[in-house]
Amino acid sequence: MSAQVVIVGGGIGGLTLGIALRRAGVPVEIYERAEELREVGAAVALSANGTRVLYRLGIGDGLDAVSTQPTELIYRDGVTAERVAAHPGGASYRARFGAPYWGIHRVNLQQGLATAFGDEHLHLGSGVASVAGNDSGAEITLDDGSTVTADVVIGADGVHSVVRDHVAGPGSGPVYSGTSAFRGLVPVGALPSLPDPLAIQFWMGPDAHLLHYALGADDDTVNFFAVLCGPREWGGVAGPHEASEGELLRGFEGWHPAVTEMLAAVPQSPRWPLLTQPPLNRWTRGRVTLIGDACHAMLPHHGQGANQSIEDAAVLAELLATLDPDAALTEYPRRRRGRTRAVARIAWDTGTLLHLAAGAEAEVRDAGLAHYLDRFSWVHSHGRAAPVR
Ligand SMILES: Cc1cc2nc3c(=O)[nH]c(=O)nc-3n(C[C@H](O)[C@H](O)[C@H](O)COP(=O)(O)OP(=O)(O)OC[C@H]3O[C@@H](n4cnc5c(N)ncnc54)[C@H](O)[C@@H]3O)c2cc1C
Q: What pLDDT does 1 receive?
């Protein structure tokens, strides 16, 4: 008999897992702390390894309609704007990897997923305070003190996961990477100096980089993500800090006008610490396991955190639908640990490479970027065996 599954967290991974389990006929409830699913002002880029899963779940076309497919992936010198390397996007990327690459507003993605999952089993405003387990099941305690028991509990509660504390122990959480970021959404019309506004572009330079891609049903908005090295320590809680006036622009002084114009086009955002999860030795404890950022939060420089959460969800749903719960939870980390570690590793290495000053090392990097999609096709091709539809 199918297990009764409880998912803690209705983010990208939790909702995808919920949809996949329901499609497979496994009873599932999601408990989400937020009162409503909105993260306005932020976006996400999804590659073929993630969008393929969403197509298989039957929600690809709806999300495609509110996404932008980048025309190219371009790497540029941050000061001169020289095109260091470029790779085709759009239909060419889709034909190569069997599913599209999307830039999408996070709120559109979350709401598309939530609609597909439905209201009935999604409990908003239901934060989970703690988890306890035994050999045959697990129990969550909500913030209001009430409890829910299940055959299996899955922590999809993000980088500051409480479920991870139960599985891997307190203090097992993420660490500050020594880098931080600002974000913004800018109307394309405010960017006259920007070449190739519909491409996804990395502008590289010493101790900083800028990433941007277009968004929206009319491709009329650019989402940017500007990364600076430092500060060395991140004091207080691992959330955003208010930055001093002009801090972002000072970090990009002397860069190409297309860069500074974009950063200056909107009010400066808070400064976000970039966190990374050291590899966990344990993903599963009894009938409790973890997916997504709760177990492998990674730097965003390969655009893979959400994609890996989606992959986790697809694998775990299939296992829970076909094996008994103990076998499924034992097999799941075996299938996912190696790949997610490898992707987290390349995300870290990419951050270092994007921040090189001009010189011999940067020349080696630039030569390598010419083969980027060939080198990392293993990321984008994942799960390709069966056709998308
Ligand atoms: C600036 C930035 C840019 C990024 N860009 C990309 C990108 O382009 N592509 C990409 O693939 N990835 C990107 N990522 C990474 C991506 O956002 C995450 O990897 C992804 O959101 C993880 O999904 P998740 O479902 O595991 O966790 P989350 O999306 O964080 O969802 C966790 C959910 O759990 C809920 N929750 C938390 N605690 C509790 C609790 N105790 N009880 C109940 N609910 C709880 C939260 O409210 C939330 O809804 C980026 C990350 C950052 C910081």
A: 38
Q: CA 314, CA 56: separation in Å to the nearest integer?
A: 10
At the topology level of CATH, where does 5-35+124-173+277-352 sit? FAD/NAD(P)-binding domain (3.50.50)
pTM score, whole prediction: 0.96
Q: Which of 6, 17, 30, 33 has most ligand 1 atoms within 8 Å of CB, for mutation?
A: 33
H-helix or E-strand spanning residue 334: helix 325-354
b/e string for 99-133 if b means 16 or more Cβ within 10 A?
Answer: bbbbbbbbbbbbbbbbebbeeebbbeebebeebeb
Angle of CA points 27, 32, 33, to nearest 5°: 155
Per-residue pLDDT tens digits for 311-345? 999 999 999 999 999 999 999 999 999 999 999 99
In the chain, CATH 3.50.50.60 covers 5-35+124-173+277-352
Q: Which residue has the tokens 């199918």?
A: 2
Which residues are part of the catalytic machinery?
A: 213
Q: If you write DSSP's letter for every residue of 17-45 in order, what string do you get?
A: HHHHHHHTT--EEEE-SSSS---TT-EEE
Tell me how far apart the alpha carbons of residues 78 and 345 are, in angstroms, rounded to a whole number. Answer: 24
Confidence label for 218 from pLDDT (cuts 50, 70 and 90): confident
* CB distance 11 to ligand 1 below 6 Å: yes
Domain with CATH 3.30.9.30 in the chain: 71-98+175-276+356-389
Q: How far is the CA of 370 from the centre of ligand 1 (A)?
A: 31
- The DSSP bridge partners found for residue 226 are 182, 210
268 pLDDT above the threshold of 60: yes
CATH domain 71-98+175-276+356-389 topology = D-Amino Acid Oxidase; Chain A, domain 2 (3.30.9)
